[in-house]
Amino acid sequence: MSELQLLLDAPVLAVQLVIDGLLVGAIFCLAAYGMALVWGVMNIINIAQGELVMLGGYVTLLVVQAGLPPFVGVPVAAAVLYVVGWALYRAVIFRVVDRDMFISILATFGISIFLQQLANEVFGADVQTVRSGLGQFFLFGGLVTVSQIKLVAFAGAVVLALVLYLFLKRSRLGQAIRASAQNARAARILGIDTGRVYATTYALNAALCGATGALVVMAWVIHPYIGLPYTVRSFMIVVVAGLGNLPGVVAAGLGLGVAENFAGFLLGAEYQAAFVFSLLVVILVWRNWRLARRRLYLR
C-alpha cells in the first residue's frame, strides 16, 4: 500500500509509468502483429514467436560486432529472419497446416525449444545488449525520463505496422494472403497458390519478429530463454483483440504495457510476471464465457 500512497502523493510517477508502458507496449504490438497474421491465415498458434524475437536480437548483436551501426541491424535482422521463417515453414510448418491446432502447438513448441538450445550453444547464456548511442529526454523538471532508443523503437513499431497494413491492403500478395485467410479453398479454386501464401505469411511473421528483436536488444536485453514472455504477451494481445483486428492489436498491446508497468510498481518487480500470467488466465476465462454466451444465443 505504501507504493499506492506514493503514487497518490506524486502523480508525476504515474506519468512515468504510462510513458514506459506505452513504449514497451508498442514492442509487444509488433510481435503480436505477426502472431495474429499466422493465426488468422494459417490457423496456427506460433509458440516459437518469442524465440524468433530473440534470434532477431542476436542477429543485431552480430551486426554490431561486425562494426556496423546498430540501427543497420533492424533491416538485416528482418531480412535474415525472413529467410529463417521461410526455411522453418518448408521444413516443419507446412506439415501441420490444415491439421488439428493442438498438433501445430506441439510442432511450434518443439521449434521454440530447438531455437533456445541452439542460441544457448552458439551465443552462450549471458544476458546481452547493444548500446544504441542515444540518450534520454527529461520532462517535468527531470522528474520523468524518456529513453530516446525506446522512442525510436516506438516509432519503428508504428512505421512497421503501417507498412504491414499497406502491404496487406494494396499489394497483390497481400490481397492473396487476405483471401486465403477468409477462405483457403475458394482461394485455391481461384488460382491462388496457398502454399506460397502460407510460406510468405510465416516468413513475414518471422521478419516482424526479427525487427522486434533488433529493437529489443537496443532498448532492453536478450538471452536464449527470453522468448516465452514475448510469446505469452503476443498470445494475450491477439486473444483480446481478435483475429484480423490490427487497431485492436495496437490498443491491447499498449494497454498491456501500461497495466504491466503499474502492476510491477504496485506489486513489485518479482510479481510482474505473475501478474501477466494471472491476467492471461482471466482473459481466457472471460473469452470462454463470452463464447459460451454466444453459443447459448445461437441455440
Automatic annotation (TrEMBL):
GO molecular function: transmembrane transporter activity
A GO cellular component annotation in the UniProt record: plasma membrane
Record Pfam families: BPD_transp_2
InterPro entries in UniProt: ABC_transp_permease, BCAA_transport_permease
Topology with respect to the bilayer: Multi-pass membrane protein
Highest taxon listed in the record's lineage: Bacteria
Gene Ontology process terms (BP): amino acid transport
Location(s) in or outside the cell: Cell inner membrane
Keywords of this entry: Amino-acid transport, Cell membrane, Membrane, Transmembrane, Transmembrane helix, Transport
Keyword presence, Acetylation: no
Record-annotated membrane-spanning stretches: 12-33, 45-64, 70-89, 101-119, 139-168, 202-223, 235-259, 271-289
Family: Belongs to the binding-protein-dependent transport system permease family. LivHM subfamily.
Stated name of the protein: Amino acid/amide ABC transporter membrane protein 1 (HAAT family)
Organism: Inmirania thermothiophila
